[in-house]
Amino acid sequence: KKKSSLLSYLRLMLQHTLLIIHPNKASTARGICKCGYPKIQHCDEAIKPEDYMGEQWDTHRHVREVPTDAFGDITFGGLGQKTGKYVRVSSDISSESLYQLMTEHWKLRSPNLLISVTGGAKNFYMKTHLKDKFRRGLIKVAQTTGAWILTGGTHAGVMKHVGMAVRDYTLSSGLMEGQIVVIGVAPWGVIHNRHTLVHPEGCFPAYYALDEQGQGRLSCLDINHTHFLLVDDGTHGHYGVEIELRARLEKLISQQTLGSRGSGVTIPVVCVVLDGGPGTLNTIYNAMLKHTPCVVLEGSGRLADVIAQVAALPLSKVTLVLISQLMKRFFGQEYQSFTEVQVIEWTKKIQDIIRMPHLLTVFRIDEDKNYDVDVAILQALLKASRSDEHAGRQSWERQLELAVAWNRVDIAESEIFTEESQWTSCDLHPAMFSALVGDKPEFVRLLLENGVCVGKFLEQEDKLTELYAHLPACFFLRKLAKRVQGGKIHRGQEPQPGSSKISLSHVAEEVRHLLGSFTQPLYGLSRHKMTGDDVRLAVPSKGLVDLPCLGEEWTPDTVWDPGRDLFLWAVVQNNTELAEIGWEQVQDCIAAALAACKILRKLAQESGEDDSEEAKEMRELASHYEKQAIGVFSECHSWDAQRAQKLLIRVSPSWGRSTCLWLALEADAKSFIAHSGVQALLTQIWCGELSVDNPHWKVLLCMIFFPLIYTAANSKHLQSTLTPVLFTSPQVKFYWNIASYFGFLWLFAVVLMIDFQAYPSWRELLLYVWLTSLVCEEFRQLYHDFDGSGFRRKAKMYISDLWNILDVLSIVLFIVGLVCRLQASGTVFYVGKVVLCIDFIIFSLRLMAIFTISRTLGPKIIIVRRMMMDLFFFMFLLSIWVVAYGVAKQGILIHNEERLNWIIRGAVYEPYLIIFGNVPTNIDSEHCSVNGSDPLKPKCPMLNDENMPAFPEWLTIIMLCVYLLFANILLLNLLIAIFNYTFQEVQDNTDTIWKFQRYELIKEYHSRPALPPPFILLSHLILFIRAVLLRYPPQRHKTFRQELEQTEEEELLSWEAYMKDNYLASTRQDESQSVEHRIQDTQLMCSSSVCPEGRSSDRDDGESSGQETDEEAAPHTFARQLQYPCSTVKRFPVPEEKVPWEVPDINYITYFTKLNNIILDCLSYVTHVTYAFFRNPGGRTGIRGKGALKSLGPNHILHPVLTRWRDAEHKVLEFLAVWEEAEKHWALPGRLHSMCVFSVMQVYKGYVDDSRNTDNAWIETTIVTLHCDKHTPLMADLNRIVSRKYHFLSYCSDFCTI
């Protein structure tokens, strides 16, 4: 399907040429056409020379386009060679079609940078050091910036060097599918073995062989390029036919917007030059005229070395003689083929190139500097951007956008964030958004360090909404899309584009689901009423979901916290580095870390793929933030334990009004709960108002003889409060409940063993009352909303507790036993007693829960629980051996046993007892029944006629030995090994797990009534009256939640942020002192000491600019441009030293031609004498006549500078500018003759360096300033005049502020 789609597109959009023969005398004799192809390679209709006799060769008439027949995949064979793409296209194809082919059908991502490599097309020598730097730097800049590299595509010259760079990268990285995009634009007619690429249906792949020996004058494709555009103009053996198409393609790419957002920044283009000849000079010259920066590699040879030698010289020293000497030096024998006119033209073009130092960068190998070509390329682009005619803030912002797109923090630090640049937070917001969406954490950190304020960045809610709209593909995004679409998306199903709408409230719902229902939504409705179109949530590879941002109001229950918003956005996408940066910006950092831990573990749990890479990364990141929370809390606790404990129970408005303690419990952060500071808080809550230093024996003694507590009191007020304090302590409640539970079990045992009568005795009735109090307490625990999380969540938590399950099971069994016990039937009565006896076992097991508070026995209970799980799976394995041996043994020994109980006993029970050494005795006739008639004895084994056992004794012995070997030795020792492994594994963490589970016991007894069962019924009665009859609101336990005043909370959060900074500083210090970090630092120091970092020779302001310091002495420049404006006429090249008329130039030639139907010399009687009379005062221009001007000699023009005050205070001065469509720039209005002004002052009068000037016609201007009043009718008339004449005008105030 993909192949057919590409085929239909190529047939529709792309064409190549079909040749029609055009004969001439020279070619007809040899059978060779003008195009270079033999006569036999033309179509039938083309072989008719008589149809074209007397005609000149015309590409449009003698060449016809047909659908392309060469496209598809190309492979070069060999080890490690990857498959590329190629297509044969016409030289007249639109560049838009090619760009569409590359981005849509070849699936190339739009580049962030286009590197056009040009230079020598023949093989040339480069020094090893320079070659390594070029290859390494080119690949580095392409890899880091996501650039496209554009070359000539053949296996020779500079193209070969680029291919070798790609090959070295592929081999070193080990990537079969490289990330480097290298596109070769080559002429089809010069490709050797191109017939292997032709197939009407395309080649998938085409096998191309590199044959340098037999290529002759042709060229082979380079095997290391990834894509090829083969340009066909109908000729064979003609080089350079692709230049025009390549230039158009580069221009189109340079007009594309950089990135996916409409930032206004287009894709930058840079030209890299190695070696080169005349064609390369034209390429550089035309590129720099189009404001494309060029990087020239000194030492690569020929043209590159000529330019490098004169780049740093003043323009006055770059003479014809110097250029001639340098060409003779670097071109060698090839210099003899240059004519004198060509040398003059070279001199003129090189002078023009040097006159644009902001576009020229020379890369030199310096022993004192160590940098690759990538730094020179990026610096050249930034230098060109800085020197743009629209210099100022927009230039700096463009540079920053480019640096972000390239992800080159080093370039941004050295070239953009300098002392001269002053950035505000708002200026950096677009770059901040691009860095966040593009997952460039280093840039995010750099922007934060250089002035970005997160509060200002996320001040508008639409910014945060847009961030969620650009979330990368992740599990949270799929959950969010599913929530928006009402749960209609199933696992593996793609969200439908535009099917639903979403806002931050949907994000809040999903986050609340991940955090837990005990929290409040983090986002309400929007904080601002917004105007604009809906934002669409882009789900990469999974569709689009609309995000509305209109008509919603801010709810007062939520808190605006930009640091939290940024951190949460990074956490939900499981982005480690961005989340770390966001966490550093959060003020409530402990709660934020624990919330992230909870969210990530919940996401990993709900992903349903425990072994997936994404789930593992989520768990690792959750553990990381648990450690971060522990680190900050440890820092806080070491400074001030009381304030640190206050952080644990402080209500956090930023995280749904939850607390750090509760978030840690919900996140299963056992290590955090096990922290000594958290345990100290729990111990303090456990003791209540009692001192934590009290020995247990003192507390127990005071519980029995409570008057003893008054012995330590000195005041009557203290004595009156000691008794409630004692009995409301959770510790005391626990002790009384233990005593009560022991009493309950003692009474239960007495009833079962001694006092179980037909009619209940007073002891049994007391037992029923006692059980009733336990049932009421279970109901209170179920309905008691401790933390305000709701009944549904409370019920879920209640059922998830193993001890609660035992409580419910024991109560249900007691009720069943009681019902059976109250029946009159003796059988049912005894069944009831049996059920109650079993129930006593469960009640006794429930007693183990009291040991969870013990530091010694608590961890052991955890180990027992883990071993019980191991034992369950072991019994499943053991049952296989038991049943296998038991069934075989029963079938061999006993013939047709029909009693079910004895079948189960013989097949399961007896083999199980054999494991423990109990040898069965039913083989002996004294212990068995022959026919199975005795129900109390098993059936005897089968006998033969001689009353001997019919079964083979040797077989049963072997079976028993094998069974004992595996069951008794192997499996039992395996069980011991499993228990040992579990013990060793759990032993290291039992203390942590015990401390974590200790919280539930403390919370239970903190909320429990003071009276123990059965007296607790009084407390239950009081609670029932308060809640049901009096309808009092439920009491909240402030011990676990504390609301702080605003001032106190701000102080506490500031202190926490300070402690976080201390913790991060100490962490970085520890990392810097690690062995690995020291090794890296040593390597960097060694490399920098040998080759410290430097910069390319880019001829900055500190270096010689190549221009004269005396501006009046500098000759005109625009008047010597090789291309005369608005025409196809080219001037004769005039070097700098040949401009003055006083300097003789015997080679000076002028041309007389027409410019857009304007005759240069429209007066036929004009003679050379007339030309001599009208001579340009600025010197030679390279063309004679009047050109596009009205007359010979001076052409006068008036340029008024029109100004006005913007405001009444006269602080900002505006001036009038008009847009020149032909020149594509802003200019002052000219040739305005009738104006009403208040004041006129002449500024300048004289010659103007204009591109329309010729040797005999030039422009002289008079510049005057005219200041007008903004509110007079005269100003309105002036606006109408300018608008009618120039169609577009603008008042600019950015250049003059008073």
From TrEMBL:
UniProt keyword Signal present: yes
Transmembrane segments: 734-759, 804-824, 830-851, 871-888, 954-979, 1015-1032
One Pfam family hit: Ion_trans
Family annotation (Gene3D superfamilies): Nucleoside Triphosphate Pyrophosphohydrolase
A GO molecular-function annotation: ligand-gated calcium channel activity
GO cellular component, one term: plasma membrane
Domain TRPM SLOG: 85-310
Residue ranges annotated for the TRPM-like domain, each copy included: 415-675
Membrane topology of this protein: Multi-pass membrane protein
Signal peptide: 1-28
Location within or outside the cell: Cell membrane
Residue span(s) of domain Ion transport: 735-990
Primary localization class, coarse: membrane
Sequence segments annotated as region (Disordered): 1088-1117
The keyword Magnesium is annotated on this UniProt entry: no
Family (UniProt): Belongs to the transient receptor (TC 1.A.4) family. LTrpC subfamily. TRPM2 sub-subfamily.
PANTHER family (alphabetical): TRANSIENT RECEPTOR POTENTIAL CATION CHANNEL SUBFAMILY M MEMBER 2, TRANSIENT RECEPTOR POTENTIAL CATION CHANNEL, SUBFAMILY M, MEMBER 6
Name used for this protein in its record: Transient receptor potential cation channel, subfamily M, member 2
